[in-house]
Amino acid sequence: MSIVRALPALVLLLASCAPAGSPAQNAPAATEIKVGAVLPLTGAFSASGNYFQQAYQLATDEVNGAGGLDVGGKKLPITLKVLDDGSDTTKSRSLVEQLATQEKVNALLGGYDTTLVQAQQGVPDQYKIPMVEGGGAASAIFTRGNKYLFGTLATIDDLGNITMDFLKYWEDQGKLPKPLKIALAWENTDHGKDYQAAVNKGAKDDPAHFQVVLDQSFDLNGSDFTPLLTQVKAANADAFLSDAHLPDFITMHRQYTQLGLKHKFVSYGARGPDQKGREALTTAADYLVAGLWWTPALTDQGSRTFTDTWKTKFNVTPDWFQALGYDTARVLYAGITKAGSLDGTKVRDALAGLEFTGALVPGNKISFDQTGKPKTTFLMTQNLPNNEVAIVWPSSLEGSKAAMLPMPGTS
Amino acid sequence: MYEPSAIAGLVVTAVLTAGLYALMSFGLALVYGVMKIINLAHAGTMMLSAFVVLELNHRFHLDPILGAIVSAALFLVVGMLLYVLAVRRVIDAPPIASLLLLFGVWLCAQNAAYFFWGSEDQSIVTSYTLATIPLGDVLVPVTRLIPFGASLIALGLLSWFLRSTDLGKAIRAVSQNSTAARLAGIRSGRVSTIAFGIGSSLSAFAGGLLTLLFSFTPDFGHTFQLKSFAIIVLGGLESFPGVALGALVLAVIESFSILIPGWRGSLVNLLAFTLLVAGLVLLPGGIASLLERRGKPE
Amino acid sequence: MIRTWRLSVWAPLAIVIVLALFPALFPGELNYIGLGFLTFIFVTLAVSWNMVGGYAGQVSFGYAAFFGTAAYATAILWSRYEWDPVLTLPIAGLAAVVVALIVGLPCFRLLGPYFSIATIGIGEGSRVLALNLDQLTGGASGLNLPLAVPSKPWFYWSGLMLAVIAIAVSAWLRASRVGLGLFALRMDQDAAESVGLNTTLYKNIAHCLSAFLVGVAGGLYVVYLSYVHPDTVFSFDLSIGMVLMGVIGGVGTLWGPVLGATIYLPIQQLLLAQPSLVAIHQLIFGGLLIAIILFEPGGLLGLIRRVARR
Q: Which residue in C220, C160, C157 sits closest to C24, CA to CA?
């Protein structure tokens, strides 16, 4: 019975510890800018989560190093608080709420991976705290009626579209068969589904250029893709499009190579130039085409400076995670400066109309449509031998070269 | 639609995958057989072993196969220690105790891995990572052949060990009836310690060889562990040839499922789970019991 | 005797009243109100799981199948058929009961660890199914649900009510004939059957009761999150969490799971919010689990009782 006697006392103790009193609303003189983020620093998404955290921190440190962020003429330091949701949806949502209600942050930076972003996205509108996210790329994110959410990551359906545009161009140049027979494999995630939908739609809208001869899904972290690849082989396609994350990219393409498969065009969605993939695949990764949000192979000044800074500081070559994390934070900070205030609604309005130049993404510009969806796009790269990467689309990008199609050894 | 060489390819891949699955499951089967404990730390052992092999490869340029052997030796000791320090105490407790204890060990193992190696995907590349050997029309990847070969050797060694050595016979005695074994003078505590060590060692060996094929993070091993459950259930939980058969059944079903018209590739793991439940409910003794009934020796 | 009986009713009642007053007294403490809601959900889950896992000793690692099915029932009725979310909750509970009956039929024939392994297969199997039945569940995209939901205090009080109901059901079950039967079959199923106990019936009754409560909790949770995805509601971590809460608090007791659930979420939250502890939070949980299993199988409740006896 002692436990029962103790419990009321415990609860009363807990209740009395809850800090009472009203929040200090719009304190007349804010001395710092509180920015919060909830990222998967452990768990299934932790590799990318940590990249985003480092990038958010880098952007924050740069601003603070210059004396702080200009808010209405005054320079204020930014305090960035990053919490770990362990890649868990429930924790992600409740930690963002904690940042909003307990820490009373002025603004939020988004989490990583679409599922966690979707769990978080109810919070910005509820508390009128603007959030800029660079970790969720499903088009569904921007269909929920948010006013306080902005994304910097072009959505995956766009990746499918740009791939189809690219392929159409090269068909018309005579480098690929027309209509192009496509074998499509996609991971069963929102990412894969968006990609699959876009490719199928592109084919349906333009049967003169495209014919999807195989459409097959696979589960994450597969142990054997030989059955799938056997189906691919039997489909007699000209092109192999697969949307996969790094572990499956490695396993699948190794088996693709071991089975002796060849297609005139092979692309694994956003995979290809990543260092880990190239190391694990060696020469098999050559000539693969990828659609990316950013690549260290970009030669414009901003990208080169970023790549060098990151290499010096962290001893690794950055990938799109780091670049987008960096852009995401800088966009938020630019929005705050533009608003000239820390008031959530004012910052939100500033962000809605923001034209952020000096971004790392292709086009170097980030702005948003009414749903908060970014008006940015992808670039495409092709791996070249000796660990080189060429930018092959759009041709307007600095350093863009013509893609080597069909893939060498296949015509 | 499918040429004969494609079907032949599927058969080959099913057999090779079966070898991989069997290798992964022997450790679980041994531990369960001897002490009726489901080793939920199996995934953690495979994962840590993969990282050990990674370190040996990066620092000493040790080939993963040799690394896996070294790791197996290391985990023999680790497994025995784990048994003596913790598992031994929950042997006679309700099954939930050992399940959760080993789950706790898995959590700690994951944390250790995150701490030392971080969350990035790791992979090992060797000179033969992409190499293949032609078998008629079918190209057999060397890296799939190795775990298959290893599983055959393991099966042979384990069967010999259990049949012909004193320790092996003692293990079988304790598996069948630990009280009677004790009455017969077998030091079942010591036997169990060694059995757990060997079980961990087998898991570690499998985990090490898996680095030839897959990239891994501290989260690695969860799905493989669940499939291993399905396999040892199919196999009859206490028989090594049964495990090999169970692995073959699962691998064949998984590989040939792709031929089902309208099949979604992403459903493949459902097969393992369905077989797991069906196996437990319909075939409590596993496939091995089916064979026994027909008079085939174990 | 009468005095202690009264205490065991009045003391919890007093706690409930205090808890219920909290949002009214401190309306600005939205973070705690939200955490309170989640804790009540977890209490419901732990207490419900305990009815089968603790009282009957049938340790299930697949309760996420009930939570997930119910969550999707609510999600689909709410988003696709525009039901009032509150009205979907009983349906969600019933959907979970249906799954429980289907699961119980083959699985209750299995004993001990076999039952546990089978439930792992059930839990993970339902997750893979949900990931692939795109027409019904939205598959891997999950389902986006309306962002307009009731207020935080509403969730808090609903959660509190549900948790109280769950504890009441658990207390009733404990003292009832069914409960006695469950305890008997936990100790020795064969002996129980030999004295004429219909163990299968009792197991199924407890299973359906607990599944219903878990289902309602699942529906309520999904209304709160405004989002449902197979990896969230069918997750193995959730199933394991229910087991852990029971074990940490004291499996098989009435208040043990309550205690376990009360510290499970807030402790995790606390650990994750401290940057210095982030790197070792799995270690802390794993270590806690190992310590409890090795040194105090009665969980925290057992520890408290042991200390109180001194």
A: C157
pLDDT tens-place string over residues A126-178 = 999 999 999 999 999 999 999 999 999 999 999 999 999 999 999 999 999 98
Reduced to 3 states (helix: H, G, I; strand: E, B; else coil), residue C218 is helix
Mean pLDDT of A96-104: 92
> Residue C278 and residue A41: Cβ atoms within 8 Å?
yes
What are the residues facing A35 on neighbouring strands? A80, A107
Mean pLDDT throughout B193-217? 94
pLDDT at position A9 over 50? no
* Chain B nearest CA to C26, separation (Å): 37
Rounded-to-integer distance, Cα C67 and Cα C239, Å: 9
CA distances from C69 to B167, B251, C73 (A): 49, 29, 6
Alpha-carbon distances, residue B189 vs A170, B33, B83, B169, B193 (angstroms): 71, 15, 10, 15, 6
pLDDT in tens, B83-142: 999 999 888 888 888 888 999 999 899 989 988 998 888 999 999 999 999 988 899 999
Stretch A96-112: mean pLDDT, rounded? 94
Residues B201 and C198: their CA atoms lie apart, in Å, by: 44
Task: Report the candidate in C123, A224, A220, C121 with the shortest Cα–Cα distance to residue B274.
Answer: C121
Q: Identify which of C4, C32, C144 has the shortest CB distance to residue A118.
A: C144
Confirm if C229 and A115 have CB atoms less than 8 A apart.
yes
pTM (two decimals): 0.90
Determine the residue of chain B that is closest to A278 in CA distance: B125
Phi first, then psi: give them for residue B124, nearest 5 degrees.
Answer: -115, 135
Chain segment A58-70, per-residue pLDDT in tens = 999 999 999 999 9
**pLDDT bracket for residue B288 (50, 70, 90):** low
CA distance C176 to C191: 19
Give the closest-approach CA distance of B215 to chain C in angstroms.
Answer: 22
Q: Residue A400 and residue B73: Cα distance in Å, rounded?
A: 53
> Architecture of C2-309 per CATH?
Orthogonal Bundle (1.10)
Average the pLDDT over each of A101-110, C27-36, C125-134 and give the range with the smallest value.
Answer: C27-36
- What is the three-class DSSP state of B148? helix
- Looking at C176-280, list the stretches that DSSP marks H as alpha helix, in order from N- to C-terminal side: 177-187, 189-194, 199-225, 230-233, 236-249, 256-273, 275-278
CB burial of B75-111 (b: ≥16 within 10 Å; e: otherwise) equals: bbebbbebbbebbebbbeeebbbbbbbbbbbbbbbbb
pLDDT at A153: 95
Residue that has been written with the tokens 């799109």 in this structure: A320
Residue type at position B44 = G
Domain range annotation of chain C: 2-309
The complex's ipTM works out to: 0.90
Inter-chain CB proximity C7 and A4 less than 8 Å: yes
Domain ranges of chain B: 27-231
Write down the pLDDT at residue B295. 45
Residues in C whose CB is inside 8 Å of some CB of B read 53, 57, 59, 106-107, 109-110, 112-114, 116-118, 120-122, 124-125, 128-129, 131-132, 140, 236, 240, 243-244, 247, 251, 279-283, 285-290, 293-294, 297
For A382-403, how does the pLDDT look when each residue is reduced to its tens digit (9 = 90+)?
999 999 999 999 998 888 999 9
What is the Cα Rg of chain C in Å? Answer: 19
Distance (Å, whole) CA C282 – CA C286: 6
Per-residue pLDDT tens digits for C215-241? 999 999 999 999 999 999 999 989 989
Strands A388-393 and A379-384: antiparallel
Tokens 């993939």 found at: A277
Alpha-carbon distance of A150 to A350, in angstroms, equals 11
- Cβ pair C141:A190 closer than 8 A: yes
